Amino acid sequence: MSDHNAAVEDVLVSGLNLQSYDREKPGASEPLELRSDNSLVTKELWIFVIPEHLQYNPCKPFEFSYAKTAIYAVATTLIVANLYYCQPLLKAGFNRSCLVKVEMSKSFEVSYEDVSRIPTCVQAGYAVGLFLICPLGDIIRRRQLVLALIFCTTLLTIGLTVTKSVVVFETLSFVIGVANVAPQILIPLVAETAPEDIRAFAFSLVLTGLMFGILLARVVAGIIGEFVAWRVVYYTAIGLQTLVFGGLYFTLPDYPAKETDTLSWRIHWSMAVLAVTEPIAVQVILINLGASACFAYYWVTLTFLLGGSPYNYSTLEIGLFGLIGIAGVAAGPISGRLVDRILPWHSLVLSIFLLLLFQAVQVAAGGIHISAVVISCFGLDFVQQIQTVALATYIFSISKAAISRLNALYMISFYVGQMIGTSVGTSIFIHYGWRASATFGMALYGMQLCAILVRGPNCNRNKWLGYQGGIAFPARSSRMGAERDEEQAQSKECC
Length: 495
Prior knowledge:
GO terms for molecular function: transmembrane transporter activity. The chain crosses the membrane at residues 70-86, 145-166, 172-191, 198-220, 232-252, 273-299, 311-331, 343-364, 370-396, 408-430, 436-454. This is Major facilitator superfamily (MFS) profile domain-containing protein. By secondary structure, the protein is mainly alpha-helical. It has helices at residues 2-16, 36-39, 66-80, 86-90, 97-108, 112-115, 118-132, 142-162, 166-179, 183-193, 199-227, 231-249, 264-277, 279-307, 315-330, 332-341, 344-365, 370-396, 403-432, 434-453, 476-494; strands at residues 43-44, 48-49. It is built from 21 helices and two strands. Strands 1-2 form a two-stranded antiparallel ribbon. The longest helix is centred in the last third of the chain and has 30 residues, at 403-432. It is globular, with a radius of gyration of 23 Å. The protein starts with a helix and ends with a helix.
């Protein structure tokens, strides 16, 4: 074990250090945040002037603001929606919605099978962006990165509204997916800058915005596409993205880069190192894979369950269940308050037990009585918010200096889990029925419980198994003091 730790330490010291940067490089004799290249920037892309109140001043650090966090949450909602506008316009359905798909196919003069590749292109591009772009938040000034990404997606969306070629549309959709990761820069930024005692709550606000974007995009695009030409959805997206760009231009502070001397490829390599050498990161990745698989499986198979016997609900009636999901998501900030008051480990254990309880309701009676579906739908969505906030808070606790890389690992595992849940859950439902697919969800929650229980909440950072320090709740003041001491120690190492 000592040889393993020494090997990891060698990798970190060689330029991938999570808490400091290479002292031997030029200019590293002073703290990173006090370097002139971080404190004297007054323009963006050497052209646009940064508003004076948003320029970085090491003598007057930016203060955390709930108002700005709310703006970031709204921006996250509107940006992440770009990934999901196409789904209600393309997904196979019934009745009147088919007219929309026929119109899209005819506008490109191709078959439905051809246009049905568009969502895949968007999601594939998003996966690439998560891996390639998100980690750059640790080495690039995040204000410029966020604004540049939004500017690119806005211009590319204009191309979606005018192109007559389905191949061009698919290519643009892929590139938009790659660039549409600005929310994944804002989310760790909020988690990094919020005070310790409200960090999880602040994070939960932006996370709620992200979940609203996923749910509302389908609703808005479906309504617009039902009554007018489908391209109007993308005209609307252009306007919304322009509003977001303007809003963030006048509100997003120019926080300095944390590791200006680290090369891009080393950032990505260090992310891979984190994924296999940090016990907390491995725990979170495993649990997140199962959690996102459960989320995706449930909502995909819910359509099949409600559309068939004994319910036989219409498309509109099935869609109304999305409101129950939105109600659960809206309770997200409550979960942030809970995680702020207890350790993420305890929040995860509590949430997984509750998820098992609500999933048991679905296993027992989901295909028998609609009340079981309503109870499980709201309960699962609400408790999953607690779990999501706790997972992110847990993995972010590894290192503030690597928070963008840690967020990338978190989101990649979420994305992979969704693909697993959608494909496996759908296959089980089709071949074995609703109860078998619900049991699949129970098994996933059981796997998550095993993953969290192998390691206690008070273990040293490099300890893989056991309950060193017990499972007691540490006093809130002592936890905050320990975090401050650790951050001060990291700051001294950088000086």
